[in-house]
């Protein structure tokens, strides 16, 4: 769960590490048995991430930078266990999560990893509080504690007066803050965010980044973005191009 | 995970599903959700109407009648028609009673009916025929499906007149006895003249029938001592006469012709078949409807399902959400459909009583609401496996 930030880079084992990770996507479906018999060729493939190794220490804020199609979102999804690598391994707290079953990876995300998406991805038929409380339902937390915890998290992101509002009734910035509250409600060790300010105007984007700065004092954060302002909060920036790491350095 | 935690999780998931479904039905996804509910509701409403009519037939409260005819029958003979009951309790002093009925302003015709199976002969031909005695009058066009044309009015022999010896033979009777109009036949050793033969329109197949004057048949069978008859047939312009007819004899029942028919239909299990067919058809149509609309709903919901998966909601929990949502929607459809079905029954009965009948066609009962909801839930249960498989297929991955 939450890990203190100081002196993390060398004294603790990495919270998440990718070793020689390659991710290949297939475009379209395969030919199948009959298709092969009829001589149909295999569909084309795309190597989104190619032989990437990356280690992230507890408490670190890492920014994944690069142009569109550079593989930063794919690498982020691999680190969060949303996808499994075609080759190589992803170790979360020193355990290879690529070998986990889908169910176990889902459970890992529930307990240890908070995810924030560019397009917020809230459940539009539930209120802000119900959205934030959703992971707690899965954890089997009782109704009263769920409400208390979700209210507390929404208070922390400045939405204490928007508890009953549905996503459609909230601005883009407010929706992203609900998404951040949802990502933090289970107190995860790692928070990953894919273009968290991508859908927001500059002012709202700055507010969201301020939230991330606050979040980062308590846990490890990995951000994928091509926005300079967003990446400015990172301790270390990993730059990708055509699926490979081309550069990485502090801040 | 402890049992308590599991139960808490389950109750939480059910709460989320209920909130989500109601919110979508009223706010975020009204059209698609309402379409699913409406589809089930229409199916269940039709089921309830057909079942109401089926139960109506089975309980013999149903009436089909195009000229408001009543049958007055002894109480123990209540559900038998003329053609199958010739040896039941009889009414007495029927000529006098018949006069009283005719005196009613709204009665267009009335006649006691006495039926006996007797041997009829003509030359070498000899057959048992159903001899039906009536008191002919204007408006009494047919009895037992045979035209009364050729019978003198008002049963003159009873009033001290000459014996007429008139008989009207059904077509089958005339053929069996080889007796065209004008021939003389013998029934129970008394001579009758065939005044008319009639093909008739009754559903009694080839049963040979002879219509004669009531008092002349009474004399043949010994029923003249107490002026007896099996039943009365009454024609009227208004159903309000029924209550007066009910007071004619203390132990009698008043039925419309349609009730006799309906009772026979019920005896043949058609009502059960009707209700069963309605159940099966509703189940199939309702299930197909739910599969289509809820299936589209799940496919359209794939991003949200992927989001739930991404934040840690397991596929199993998502299946619970889908399952609960399906049962809520089908249950809601069942409730709306059942209430709508009761409304349709009322409408059907109202229209039928305005145009065709004197009594309700279909039975309406509050239990139909429970029945409709139950069938709707069965539709939900039958639909569940496919919807759960679909949910499992579309969930997971990265929300786009």
From TrEMBL, chain A:
Span of domain ABC transporter: 16-251
Organism: Natrialba swarupiae
Pfam families per record: ABC_tran
Gene Ontology cellular component annotations, sorted alphabetically: membrane protein complex; plasma membrane
SMART domains found in the cross-reference section: AAA
GO molecular function: ATP binding; ATP hydrolysis activity; transmembrane transporter activity
Database matches in InterPro entries: AAA+_ATPase, ABC_transporter-like_ATP-bd, ABC_transporter-like_CS, ABC_transpr_LolD-like, MacB-like_ATP-bd, P-loop_NTPase
Keyword entries, A-Z: ATP-binding, Nucleotide-binding, Transport
Protein name in the entry: ABC transporter ATP-binding protein
Keyword Cell membrane among record annotations: no
Automatic annotation (TrEMBL), chain B:
Membrane topology: Multi-pass membrane protein
Coiled-coil intervals, chain numbering: none
UniProt organism field: Natrialba swarupiae
ABC3 transporter permease C-terminal domain residues: 278-392
Transmembrane segments: 35-58, 272-299, 319-347, 367-390
Major localization listed first in the record, in broad terms: membrane
UniProt keyword annotations, A-Z: Cell membrane, Membrane, Transmembrane, Transmembrane helix
Any GO CC annotation of this UniProt entry: plasma membrane
Subcellular location field: Cell membrane
Pfam families attached to this UniProt entry: FtsX, MacB_PCD
Protein name: ABC transporter permease
Domain MacB-like periplasmic core, residue spans: 36-223
Matches recorded under InterPro entries: ABC-4/HrtB_transporter, ABC3_permease_C, MacB_PCD
Organism lineage: Archaea, Methanobacteriati, Methanobacteriota, Stenosarchaea group, Halobacteria
């Amino acid at each position: 769960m939450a890990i203190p930030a100081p002196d993390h880079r060398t004294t603790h084992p990495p919270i998440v590490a990718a070793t020689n990770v390659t991710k290949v996507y297939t475009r379209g479906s395969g030919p199948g048995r009959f298709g092969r018999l009829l001589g149909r060729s295999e569909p084309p493939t795309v190597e989104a991430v190619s032989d990437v190794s990356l280690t992230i220490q507890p408490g670190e804020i890492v920014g994944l930078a690069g142009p569109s199609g550079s593989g930063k979102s794919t690498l982020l999804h691999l680190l969060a266990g949303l996808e499994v690598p075609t080759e190589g391994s992803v170790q979360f707290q020193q355990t290879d999560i690529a070998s986990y079953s889908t169910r176990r990876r889902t459970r890992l995300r529930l307990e240890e990893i908070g995810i924030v998406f560019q397009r917020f991805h809230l459940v539009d038929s539930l209120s802000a509080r119900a959205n934030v409380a959703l992971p707690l339902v899965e954890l089997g937390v009782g109704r009263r504690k769920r409400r208390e915890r979700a209210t507390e998290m929404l208070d922390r992101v400045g939405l204490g007066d928007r508890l009953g509002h549905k996503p459609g009734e909230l601005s883009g910035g407010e929706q992203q803050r609900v998404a951040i509250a949802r990502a933090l409600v289970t107190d995860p060790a790692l928070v990953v965010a894919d273009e968290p300010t991508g859908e927001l105007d500059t002012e709202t984007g700055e507010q969201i980044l301020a939230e991330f700065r606050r979040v980062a004092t308590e846990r490890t954060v990995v951000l994928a973005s091509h926005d300079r302002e967003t990446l400015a909060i990172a301790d270390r920036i990993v730059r990708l191009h055509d699926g490979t790491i081309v550069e990485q350095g502090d801040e | 995970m402890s049992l308590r935690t599991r139960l808490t999780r389950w109750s939480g998931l059910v709460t989320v599903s209920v909130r989500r479904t109601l919110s979508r039905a009223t706010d975020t996804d009204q059209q698609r959700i309402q379409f699913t509910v409406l589809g089930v509701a229409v199916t269940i409403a039709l089921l309830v109407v057909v079942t109401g009519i089926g139960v109506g037939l089975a309980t013999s409260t149903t009436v089909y009648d195009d000229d408001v005819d009543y049958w007055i029958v002894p109480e123990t003979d209540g559900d038998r028609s003329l053609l199958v009951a010739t040896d039941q309790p009889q009414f007495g002093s029927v000529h006098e009673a018949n006069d009283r009925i005719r005196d009613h302003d709204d009665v267009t015709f009335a006649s006691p009916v006495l039926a006996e199976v007797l041997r009829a002969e003509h030359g070498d031909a000899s057959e048992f025929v159903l001899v039906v005695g009536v008191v002919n009058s204007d408006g009494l066009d047919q009895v037992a499906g045979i035209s009364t044309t050729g019978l003198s009015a008002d049963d003159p022999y009873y009033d001290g007149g000459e014996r007429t010896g008139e008989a009207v033979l059904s077509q089958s009777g005339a053929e069996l006895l080889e007796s065209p109009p004008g021939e003389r036949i013998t029934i129970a050793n008394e001579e009758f003249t065939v005044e008319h033969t009639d093909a008739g329109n009754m559903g009694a197949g080839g049963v040979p029938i002879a219509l004669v004057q009531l008092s002349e048949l009474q004399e043949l069978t010994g029923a003249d001592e107490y002026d007896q008859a099996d039943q009365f047939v009454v024609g009227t312009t208004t159903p309000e006469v029924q209550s007066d007819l009910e007071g004619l004899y203390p132990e009698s029942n008043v039925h419309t012709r349609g009730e006799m028919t309906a009772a026979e239909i019920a005896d043949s299990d058609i009502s059960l078949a009707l209700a069963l067919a309605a159940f099966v058809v509703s189940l199939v149509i309702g299930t197909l409807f739910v599969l289509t609309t809820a299936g589209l709903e799940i496919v359209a919901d794939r991003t949200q399902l992927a989001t739930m998966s991404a934040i840690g909601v397991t596929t199993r929990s998502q299946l619970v959400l889908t399952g609960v949502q399906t049962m809520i929607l089908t249950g809601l459809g069942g409730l709306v459909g059942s209430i709508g079905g009761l409304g349709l029954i009322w409408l059907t009965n109202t229209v039928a009583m305005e145009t065709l009948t004197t009594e309700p066609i279909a039975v309406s009962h509050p239990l139909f609401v429970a029945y409709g909801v139950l069938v709707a839930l069965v539709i939900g249960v039958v639909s569940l496996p496919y919807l759960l498989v679909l949910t499992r297929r579309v969930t997971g991955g990265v929300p786009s």
